Amino acid sequence: MAAETTTAGTTRAPQGEEPPALPADRFLNRELSWLDFNARVLELAEDETLPLLERVKFLAIFAGNLDEFYMVRIAGLKRRLSTGLTVRSPDGLTIREQLTRVTERTQELVHRHAVAFEQDVTPRLEAAGIRIVHWSDLAEPETRRLREYFRDQVFPVLTPLAVDPAHPFPYISGLSLNLAVSVRDPDTGTRHFARLKVPNNVPRFVPVGAGQAQDASGQATFLPLEDLIAAHLTSLFPGLDVVDHHLFRVTRNADLEVEEDRDEDLLQALERELARRRFGPAVRLEVTETMDPQILDVLVSELEVSPQDVVTVPGLLDLASLWALYDLDRPELKDEPFVPATHPRLSEGETPKSVFATLREGDVLVHHPYHSFATSVQRFIEQAAADPHVLAIKQTLYRTSGDSPIVTALIEAAEAGKQVVVLVEVKARFDEEANITWARSLERAGCHVVYGLVGLKTHCKTALVVRRESGVIRRYVHIGTGNYNPKTARLYEDLGILTADPRVGADLTDLFNTLTGYSRQTSYRQLMVAPHGIRSGLVDKIRREARHAAEGRPCGIRFKVNSLVDEGVIDALYEAARAGVPVELFIRGICALRPGVPGLSEGIRVRSIVGRFLEHSRVMAFCNGGEQEWWIGSADLMHRNLDRRVEVLLRVCDETAQRELQRVFDAAMAPGVRCWELGPEGAWTRLDGRDYQAALTAAVTEHAG
């Protein structure tokens, strides 16, 4: 029987025949795929069509991303390598092979990054009146003023540390800039090595002007702090000859491993690990191209890194500090200011509406940052806190802002006598200390605070409000894809549903009983919940689409996630594609799936959009024989999300919300959109076209108007 071709253009095996086994080389490497994502960020920094300071912003984002990649992912690989286990990644590479390839790719990207800054962006900044200069470029009045600044503001916080038999090699803190200084005794000719930390509590870029970052015309000149210090080394080593100096930077393992014991206070265990994090082993040594080989040998030996861990950087180290330039008041060099719109169902003209009254009329799908977080989700919590009919508020907090209005509202609700239950995930990476502080503030206000579950991170974004209305209890819910953080809600693209659907309210009540008590519920009405239900639920729905294809019924799969790594989900997608199901994947970051492989994935398209806003929402859609099914939630398709986190996916039943999700996905996957598309060998190709995010901004603004 001849093979049958489906409308998706893929080939389906004849009925009764088993499809061939999936090939062994069907996965892409996740670490290299992440570096490809950061390369897309770098391409935006290289894009001459973007406003100049937006390019500076993407240079800073690239550098910050790479720091975190080494602190977490590379640190994890090195830890596994140290165990001696011969573990291979799903794409077949050993840990050592992965580290080698990552190092080669990183060095290539770091060089591109430096060239973009030094040879392209810096000359354009100078033409716009923003200069980064060296000490030798300064005139005498400028050097005199900066000598005074050094004497008053910098010199008192500097601590030269000698290295000799009486002074062991000092501890080098992670991500700090350091000067390796070589000095010589003029009497004996003996050379000595000293380390000098560039203080991080003094601005990295020192204004050369009279104490101001920029003048009235917007002109600004800066001297790197390390240049200012280097120009004054003789005052730090009086009586010695300063032979030379070299800049270096160390990245340390910052991935916490909290030993969670049911009998130990989680906060105490976490605080102990936070103290240890500062002393994690070095995983990367960044040096300038002019680094003296002998000094480099000393650093490699003392820091106990391998030559493979050394990254040579042309020009300035730590370009994450370029945020200081982006913060300059030069609006003509940035994107047009963006003001989020209030969702039209949450206001009448300029007058805010009761969120509760609105939700009794139907669900509201909010799309941040296009829809204002402050006038939707934040207002929902604030109105609940102030409403005398509200009996209880239950909420999960993974990350929030430093001056969080959400936390303030929860504290006010507790002080007003409402029952407030907050699950604060104190294990949220790099926000552990902030979350411990929030947890204690909430406890002092009388909130019931839970610190997460042993062995799991609670990553879901959920809020439940219980309200008495005419003697009847009604529950109102928010479930979203992003954190309860009003600052990142202006930068991250996220979705959320506000609903009074009693089925969802009952589900969330059950979920909070699991999070705060001993309930072991694993099945829900309108939710899929990890670690027990999301992978299996999605795989079942993917297989259902394959059955629809086999029966000639309408079929199709659309996923929007940050990362697609989970092998079980990927294999299910391959099987669906081979059955003739068209698959569209909108993935911002890591993708371990190979699209477009003959006989495996011809019907799968993978697209990435990286732009002004960080695409962050997670959406899953299934054609389901013509009865479309939409899900949104917090879970990326990765092992950690599906196996080691509490995640929630919500089925979106409101028809208006479904149509809005359909429009968003159609716009992202349409022809002629500026994006990157993934090929079968793992290469991303950039396609120029219209700006998808700008189009959404215009559409939401017009609709709100």
UniProtKB/TrEMBL annotation:
Domain Polyphosphate kinase middle: 143-325
EC id: 2.7.4.1
Record key words, sorted: ATP-binding, Kinase, Magnesium, Metal-binding, Nucleotide-binding, Phosphoprotein, Transferase
Class of enzymatic activity (EC top level): transferase
Domain Polyphosphate kinase N-terminal, residue spans: 27-133
Cofactor(s) of this protein: Mg(2+)
MF GO annotations: ATP binding; metal ion binding; polyphosphate kinase activity
Region listing for Disordered, in residue ranges: 1-22
Keyword 4Fe-4S among UniProt keywords: no
Post-translational modification: An intermediate of this reaction is the autophosphorylated ppk in which a phosphate is covalently linked to a histidine residue through a N-P bond.
Record's catalysed reaction(s): [phosphate](n) + ATP = [phosphate](n+1) + ADP
Active-site residues per Swiss-Prot or TrEMBL entry: H459 (phosphohistidine intermediate)
Chain residues that bind Mg(2+): R399, R429
Protein residues bound to ATP: N65, Y492, R588, H616
Domain (Polyphosphate kinase C-terminal) ranges: 354-520, 527-690
HAMAP family with a match to the protein in the record: Polyphosphate_kinase
Its job: Catalyzes the reversible transfer of the terminal phosphate of ATP to form a long-chain polyphosphate (polyP).
Protein known as: Polyphosphate kinase
Biological source species: Geodermatophilus dictyosporus
